[in-house]
Amino acid sequence: MLAIDTRRSVRRGRNKAEASSAVRPISPGMFGGRYRPLSQSEMERIHALVLQLLADLGLSQVTPSLEARAVAAGCHVDDAGRLRFPRALVEDVIARTRRKFTLHGIDPAHDIEIAAGRVHTGTGGAAPTIMDFHSGKYRESTVADLYDIARLVDRMDNIHWYHRSVVARDTNTILDLDINTTYACLSGTTKSIAVSYTDSASVRAVIPMLDAVAGGEGKFRERPFCTAVCCHVVPPMRFATESCDALEAAVEAGMPILLVAAGQAGATAPAALAGAVAQACAEVLAGLVLCNIIDPNCRGIFATWPFVSDLRTGAMSGGSGEQALLSAACAQMAGFYDLPNSVPAGMTDSKLPDMQAGGEKGYTISLAAHAGASMIHECAGMQGSLMGTSFESYVLDNDLIGAILRTVKGIEVSEDTLSFDVIRDVVLGEGHYLGHPQTFARMKTDYLYPGIADRRSISAWEDAGARDARDVARDKVQKILGEHYPSHIAEDVDRKLRDNFNIILPRTRMFAGNGTW
Amino acid sequence: MLAIDTRRSVRRGRNKAEASSAVRPISPGMFGGRYRPLSQSEMERIHALVLQLLADLGLSQVTPSLEARAVAAGCHVDDAGRLRFPRALVEDVIARTRRKFTLHGIDPAHDIEIAAGRVHTGTGGAAPTIMDFHSGKYRESTVADLYDIARLVDRMDNIHWYHRSVVARDTNTILDLDINTTYACLSGTTKSIAVSYTDSASVRAVIPMLDAVAGGEGKFRERPFCTAVCCHVVPPMRFATESCDALEAAVEAGMPILLVAAGQAGATAPAALAGAVAQACAEVLAGLVLCNIIDPNCRGIFATWPFVSDLRTGAMSGGSGEQALLSAACAQMAGFYDLPNSVPAGMTDSKLPDMQAGGEKGYTISLAAHAGASMIHECAGMQGSLMGTSFESYVLDNDLIGAILRTVKGIEVSEDTLSFDVIRDVVLGEGHYLGHPQTFARMKTDYLYPGIADRRSISAWEDAGARDARDVARDKVQKILGEHYPSHIAEDVDRKLRDNFNIILPRTRMFAGNGTW
Questions:
Q1: Are A280 and A274 in contact (CB under 8 A)?
Q2: Cβ contact (<8 Å) for A433 and B405?
Q3: Phi–psi pair at B103, nearest 5 degrees
């Protein structure tokens, strides 16, 4: 039994997509790439260093299983035990790996096509804390938070997937964490989800859960709607042993793999930004080669996530100008390689959804988007350089991302938009464009109207209570979380999951009127 | 007698500029242009429409004086009384007008070079209201506000000029408004200033004041540190008669002229963005042709400022994605023409320095900057789509602009930044870059540290009071405005100004301890 009627949803999805591309000013997967922080020759120089790093330095601490596969494919292990990647092998993998694939939603209406240059935005992260909605104070995040954020994201048009953004601190073992994270994401949204699996046992454990939601054994593989986030390296240039095991298991299970290299410039990556970009590219490509060796049809995502250190303190700064540059340059390098990719943006250093948060999110997300990132992760909800999250931010960021995606859509230059006749008619006629047919026609196709941003006059805004954006967002959070309890997992499927897994989230928490919101 | 020792200041300015380019991560006039919303052929199509609009439609309501000059230069007036600009004349003016010039500060240390592609950021606007610092409520803006904002701007590194941002509502006549605005700007900052003169009488009236501050009769013309903001058109395609008189007077006085065409897409410019860009370019070029006819050495600034209407209400939306696109595309067109230019950005629709304001400022300013605008106006301090301003925002925006300018600086790709050896040494050695000489070397040259943005951990921030960015900015506003009273206008000069002009701002208001702050 299918938890979801796939065919009807596909049809609905297609109709929705067609309708939206006809009338909506923005849609998922628009083409970015008009911002090019690096010149062609600069990208080629970076690429030359990437190949040199993989061939002449390599990565340490590969697992025995992956070492055997890699050596069989042409790699070799040097005297220091480092796995070296011949240039030709790396270039072959870049040439033959998947250039695009469908990132499936749980509901096919949320399927998106991941390819270089096609811009999408969504969540990500592993924040250990959340700003409690009611008290406004940071506290440890829980499974229930994961579920609530999923429900919120489910209603946000410009958040194209839900990759778990907080760590469920109310679990006791890695296995319980991974099972409950997967369950909370699955049950709170019908968008594509992702979980960070650091252990192959976790991957193997959740496959039956994913199959059950997909409609039966083997069904998940047909439409893999859960991505494995794999931090397969510990920068600089070292494999993360357990994550490599998880990677191997996830590729074998047919999961899309987010191949994350998260060095920190000045600490675990060079302080010189160009070097940090090159190291990240090399580290991710090392993972991509391994994935392709395991399965040439793998769905690998080139996730160069070099972060920034504030060199005064060593602390991460997610909202800095340097971070915006690193992410944009990495998106451009992924375009150079023509690979489905991900970069981080929107990781404000601010602990509140305030002016600092808005500014830092505004320029980091827009530069990543215009550089053509296929997936912008951490793009909604994050606070405190990924150390926290807040409910209000998902709603606020969704609104901001919409406006940024409108800029990605760009300016249509055509006979129709340039028409001399329209201007002449207005200038020699009424003297204004308010009533012109072109104005009416363009109103819906070219102009995006925000859900939160306040455009009223100062006096109208004062008369309505002079509220700030955060306050307005709180209303929306409360409304959605009070009423939106997705029911795409049928009751019998859910019962089976609860029979077979140690599910912490009470079933009673999953219906309106449970007293929490 | 010079109010300022120019030679010493020039020397200090040059030394400062040299020092800063050596060590500081950002400086005024860095090269933008890596974001190109329009393709080359799209720019050529827009340009073709621009020439067609000027030649085949022209502008109405030119003044008799400018009409006579323009006809003598090759324009003609059609049967409907519209001034038509032959293509060859327009192209000649584009080819021969100044490609760059110095926008002088009152203190030469603040001189900047205005040319296509070299990015600068500063204030602008004509807000009729200000959020009172003490009550937090909007009220009518005054001469004292103009002076206080000038003092604040004087201390903000990333606000490169002070173009008056509010209207002094406590003046009774146009002449008093213009005189007092000029005086308040002049006395509150040593940066370059600008005032919107809508009347030739105002221009002629303030020249003796500008000369007095410059050091004597005829001295202002040698270093014209006050720009005339000229809204010389009433879009669509109509000259603003009185502003054209002011333009003529200002060019004759040697003032830089900000040639502003501020149509509103959907109301006074086409709703189709490409058409709005073309109309703005045509309207500004009409003004630039006239300026060049008056004086081939004029300092004209191509200020295409098409605004956006929210087509549901007709109200302006300064923070929209469409606005970001219009400004970026106009900056790119100015680059196409290779003209010193200005576009607006940072004009949030929000009435508060909140998350909405930050987000809207973040993406509009960064896209304008990366499109290579030479002057980004309204870039600091504005609220409510230019209808208001707030003291806090100047401080907050200055911080945000710094980070954005850091992204404009870009990524250095060189042997030094790419060095394989650094990565190899770290990977085979200590395993981290924290103590590497490259990290220390790059710390000051490549990394910008904000003044307001909070980068502390969540717990450190909580321990320090869990304040938001606006609250932190308030401290800085209060500190600067309580102590920073510039004294570059000597007392005897000021006395002479007060003898000759109806100066509203009391002299007693211009010293610390006056009880206001």
A1: no
A2: no
A3: -90, 105
End-of-domain residue from the set A425, A445, A465: A445
Q: pLDDT tens digits for B68-100? A: 999 999 999 999 999 999 999 999 999 999 999
Q: Indicate whether A126 belongs to any domain.
A: yes
**Distance in angstroms (rounded) separating the CA atoms of residues B266 and B275:** 10
Residues A432 and A284 in one domain: no
Please tell me whether residues A358 and A440 are part of one structural domain: no
**Cis status of the peptide bond prior to B236, with omega within 30 of 0:** yes
More confidently predicted of A219 and B8? A219
Q: Report the pLDDT averaged over residues B456-461.
A: 98
CB A346, CB A378: distance < 8 Å: yes
Strands B382-383 and B388-389: antiparallel
Please check whether residues A437 and A391 belong to one and the same domain: no
Question: Would residue B461 count as lying in a domain?
Answer: no
Both A419 and A290 in one domain: the answer is: no
Domain count along chain B: 2
Interatomic CA distance for residues A422 and B190, integer angstroms:
46
Q: Please state at what angle helix B40-52 crosses helix B87-96, rounded to 10 degrees.
A: 120
CB contact under 8 A, A355 and B351: no
Residue B24 pLDDT: 84
How do residues B312-349 score in pLDDT, each as one tens digit?
999 999 999 999 999 999 999 999 999 999 999 999 99
Predicted model pTM: 0.96
Instruction: Give the closest-approach CA distance of B154 to chain A in angstroms.
Output: 22
In this predicted structure, what is the pLDDT of residue A181? 98
CB < 8 Å from A in window 404-433 of B: 404-407, 409-414, 416-420, 422-424, 426-428, 431-433
- Tokens 């454990």, residue? A205
Mean pLDDT of B351-366: 98
Among left, alpha and beta (phi > 0; psi -120 to 50; other), residue A33 is left
Does B114 score more than 80 pLDDT?
A: yes
Calculate mean pLDDT across residues B477-499.
98
Domain range spanning residue B341? 6-35+95-408
Q: Is the CB of residue B122 less than 8 Å from the CB of residue B397?
A: no
What is the token pair recorded at B35? 């974001």
For residue A373, what is the DSSP state?
-
Q: Name residues whose C-beta falls within 8 Å of residue A94's C-beta, 6 or more positions apart in sequence.
A: A285, A288, A337, A339
How does pLDDT run across A211-248, given as a tens digit for each residue?
A: 999 999 999 999 999 999 999 999 999 999 999 999 99
Beta strand residue intervals within A117-186, DSSP E: 118-119, 129-131, 138-140, 161-163
Whose structure tokens read 């909370």? A184
Question: Are the C-beta atoms of A305 and A113 separated by less than 8 Å?
Answer: no
Tell me how far apart the alpha carbons of residues B384 and B382 are, in angstroms, rounded to a whole number. 7
* H or E segment to which residue B308 belongs: strand B307-308
Whether A217 and A343 map to the same domain: the answer is: yes
Same domain, B212 and B274: yes
Chain B positions in Cβ-Cβ contact with residue A360 (cut-off 8 Å): 358, 362, 400, 403, 453
Do the beta carbons of residue B25 and residue B404 sit within 8 Å?
no
Task: Judge if B208 and B179 occupy the same domain.
Answer: yes
pLDDT at B390 over 60: yes
